[in-house]
Amino acid sequence: MRKWIPVLIVVVAMAASVIMYPQLPERIPTHWNMSGEITGWSSRFWGAWMMPLILAGTWVLMRAIPLIDPRRANYANFMGAYETIIIAVMVLLLGVHMLVLGAATGRAISLERILPAGIGLLFIVMGMVLPRLQSNWFVGIRTPWTLSSDLSWEQTHRVGGYLFMAVGAISVLTALAAPALTFKVLFCSALVTVVFLFVYSYVVWKNDPARSVT
């Protein structure tokens, strides 16, 4: 059942575009800066249909990945987590689509609060499922060392899960308390997390006697 939720998300996005299309102006805001100010516009057609097309493409791509991954056999062991990632990403994209349609029809949208909070929730969901992922070439924390050491993969994803949830929680709280700082805080905390996990994966790999060096 869960694998059909992304299809439902695409249908909802398309239905929203069909329903809202007669109300949309000729130009639709589709880009904002960190302060929530509009910096880019699209035509009514592309503003209404770009995100449903992206959603459909995302679903097709994510469905294809397990079929082309050289470590495809591992997906059977974490397919539930993989499906959760697909749904979380597509829900965020659907939310962006609704924000664009709402802004285009003149509704007051607090983008500087809503979008970072949505990204923060995505980080939290990702953090929850990261420890359940098994070694593969497309999804998760992929460094040369996690891909050549099962121990590095396991420990990096366990620690990464906690860090991703922390980044997400910080983003959500900042979006509520100090929205003007949210994107900066999110960027800095995510950057620190990425650098730390990159180094951490190497340290674990270095101390793994079963590591691969070929």
Explain the overall architecture.
The protein has a two-stranded antiparallel sheet. A hairpin with a 5-residue loop joins strand 1 and strand 2 (38-43). It has helices at residues 5-20, 44-68, 79-104, 111-129, 150-177, 182-206, and strands at residues 27-32, 38-43. It is globular, with a radius of gyration of 19 Å. Helix 1 packs parallel to helix 3 (79-104), helix 3 (79-104) runs antiparallel to helix 4 (111-129) and helix 5 (150-177) runs antiparallel to helix 6 (182-206). The model has no long low-confidence stretch (mean pLDDT 91). Helix content is 65%, strand content 6%. It folds into two domains: 1-109, no CATH class; 112-119 and 132-214, no CATH class. It contains six helices and two strands; from the N terminus they run H-E-E-H-H-H-H-H. The protein is mostly helical and 214 residues long. The longest helix has 28 residues, at 150-177.
State the main characteristics.
about 210 residues; mainly alpha; 2 domains; two-stranded antiparallel ribbon; 2 strands; about 65% helix
